[in-house]
Design a protein that fits this description.
homodimer; 197 residues; alpha+beta; Arc Repressor Mutant, subunit A; Alpha-Beta Plaits; 7 strands; 28% strand; DNA-binding
Chain lengths: 197, 197
DNA sequence: GATGAAACTTGGGCACG
DNA sequence: CGTGCCCAAGTTTCATC
């Protein structure tokens, strides 16, 4: 399977912002032709990096619902069951399972009766405790920067297989394949910054 | 502004599953023609119900990153600042603010040094405490079932089978099962609003 | 790149409330 | 009369070569 490069990351970013953008517009942005962009997007889909094309829906606009975050503390033997059960619930927008087995659910409910809603979808005996936070607001971040997707050392361009080094330089998180590239980048940055002063 | 009906909900569901579906396919599913579907989608965008067209990206496939959930406990005077600051961070995938001012951040980080990462983006003095949970897995639910978008009357709670009435009250779109519930809601709203003045 | 095919948009006209 | 829909032509965009 072909590796990812900077161009793929740019395409991902552009699509994340607006998945309806014409291929020609993407092509101009990344310096390719529309067919080449098409090929890359197809490949990204095959690789499972693009999981699908979808819309962001403001569910709270649809009815008088309440967005909540629910922390579940399942009994250790039932973590998978609880995870599967909540994932099947209709009102769910996101599920997170911690390595400690705790489960956090992001849901938008038609009323605030969380207990009866939970009871309708899963066996409450498999949950030792739960905690509900009503949300004042929330954002799902769609704009993803190139560094957020960074896969290559920003200095030598080599792919960072595992490990790697990160450092915050000028407020930006950068990733390097090795400490020497990091040193080089930092000194280059400092030279540049000093020159500006 | 036009009201929402069952057809709009079907369109939302179809687009949520696959936003690249041709209008003709959607049109066949809901019994309309492609231009009519186009009109409705434009309207849903104007109303802010469709917030945008985007892709689902499997970020953990991109490199050996670690997904975490971070609970922040900001000092009460800095809640907005902290929320704004984390929203600007590159590695963020979601932010939630509870009515109690607590903030939960969903991020995918290149390493596990959360503290330095947080310090790079926000003033740690505005956070009294924070708690990190490394995630074993997580899902954002994209496929939304028909009932997931089902409408309930915001007054009497009855499910709205077909027809139904919507109105914009105080800038918010609300849905009712019948005009009488709408009247009741509107008068209740106006009483409430007058009381504030 | 260029071409054929498919999808989207536009404008006119009709039906319904 | 306004709103929403259909029909048909014109234009853009996409996939294949």
């Amino acid at each position: 399977m072909r590796d990812l490069d900077e161009t793929d990351l740019e395409i991902l970013e552009l699509l994340t912002e607006n998945a309806r953008r014409p291929y020609k517009e993407i092509a101009d942005n990344v310096g390719l032709t529309p067919p080449a962009v098409s090929d890359r997007i197809s490949r990204l889909e095959e690789q499972g990096i693009i999981q699908g094309f979808t819309i962001d829906v403001d569910r709270e606009k649809l009815r008088g619902e309440t967005a909540v975050l629910i922390e579940l503390d399942p009994v250790p033997t039932a973590v998978d069951d609880v995870y599967a059960a909540v994932t099947d619930l209709e009102e769910i927008e996101g599920v997170f399972e911690g390595v400690d087995g705790s489960i956090v659910v992001h849901a938008t409910l038609p009323d605030s009766n969380v207990r009866s809603w939970l009871a309708s979808g899963l066996n409450l005996e498999s949950v030792r405790n739960y905690d509900v936070t009503v949300l004042a607001r929330s954002d799902r971040i769609v704009g993803v920067s190139a560094t957020g997707f960074g896969l290559e050392c920003v200095v030598c361009g080599k792919e960072i297989v595992d490990g790697g080094v990160t450092a915050t330089v000028g407020g930006e998180l950068k990733t390097f394949c090795c400490p020497s590239c990091e040193d080089r980048y930092v000194s280059r940055y400092e030279t540049h910054r000093d020159a500006l002063e």
